[in-house]
């Protein structure tokens, strides 16, 4: 009998324990061979619940001793770089949650290691796999849509631990989403408002290589228990709107004009298409993209394919974060 695909997990915090590990049930058959965490209490909690024999407080020791096929790392942006580097140099593919590193220089170094070792660091920008956003991108690429001329997204949350942490862990998601939808983008302006270091907001303007324009509004001024996320793509006489992750509306030109003053009838090929799944159904699947990205990562490794977004792709997203900071600094100097 062929042995199962063996995974090593680095990080046993709540995100891994409560969600990421559960998502593996949607992936091709895998075995959690070993787990690693500096916090022995978290390590024991995870290993006992998931019945994992291999337990380590040093990921390098785990990489050296365990017969792993790949690694999933969910720690924080200060440690992802070191773990990804060590994994690839140990001959292992690795899935690392965003943010993959702290700077574009670190991302470029990881990209070089990825190239020289032939191993891959896939970055967990899950909005590329969210059901609604994948549907929106597919719609925007239909010939009838005519391309994306205007882009607008909102991505808000509760007060963060700091402004720096907010940018590199939250705003970065929608910078990457804009690239996913529109290709490479150039930032043109960044505006900022702040109450204190934990409560800030940005409006980020950009232009795509294809000539489309867009804005991203992101702030830590809301309460995340309210709807915090929205996307609108505007094409030729039609748009697609994703609201609160699980609601999508594709508005197409109607079959009749309002000047006709007669009874309307919805028509095929026109009017609105709506996706809005029931929240009353037993929640077997989240639609947040984690299930799909982990399935994709593991299947790619099994098939010998390079998954995306890998670290080469993420170099540009890291550069956008730094360009955002540069534009803010220039703006402050001119005030």
Automatic annotation (TrEMBL):
A GO MF label: nucleotide binding
Keyword Oxidoreductase: yes
Gfo/Idh/MocA-like oxidoreductase N-terminal domain: residues covered: 5-125
Top-level taxonomic group: Bacteria
Gene3D superfamilies: Dihydrodipicolinate Reductase, domain 2 (3.30.360.10), NAD(P)-binding Rossmann-like Domain (3.40.50.720)
SUPFAM superfamilies per UniProt: Glyceraldehyde-3-phosphate dehydrogenase-like, C-terminal domain (SSF55347), NAD(P)-binding Rossmann-fold domains (SSF51735)
Keyword set includes Oxidoreductase: yes
Keywords: Oxidoreductase
The protein's name in its UniProt record: Gfo/Idh/MocA family oxidoreductase
